[in-house]
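Bumping with the actual sequence this time:
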Amino acid sequence: MEVRDPHILLPQLVRTCASSGTRFSKALFVPSISTYNKVTSGDSIIPSDLSVRDLSWQFNLQRIWEKIIHNKDVVVDESSKMNRFHPLNLPPYEFLYEDGSSSNPANKSLSFSAVMPSLPLTIRWLRDCVKENPSLRLQVLVTGSLHLVGDVLKLLRRPG
């Protein structure tokens, strides 16, 4: 099987969606949980070993995404990686409704994307964002492996 090249796939995704009037305001890069734990339902727990996860692929995707959005190279602050994965350091809820105009690649303020440490944590964070701001409406496009898409579908089946 050929390697999926994000330098080819991400720009094509942006162009194809833009040609039909769909623009992305945010991108979240998340590892598939099936790689680490079995997802059985929306009640799957948030893993406790988040700080030992290798999220280098997600950070690479984030760099490529920001380059597409800003039309120039952007440096992701690698020194804060370990601290960023702690659940208390997730993006603030306002991240979802910022328009991106405050984004400043020169000072590493990337308001178009974020790397999230786990899929269950991301789903919970998105739900909490909507609870915090009930007028917020989200449309989510999930791309990636069938494992990732399947995990999302299982997590969304959570009762409640």
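The tokens above came from a reply further down the thread. The longest strand covers residues 27-29.
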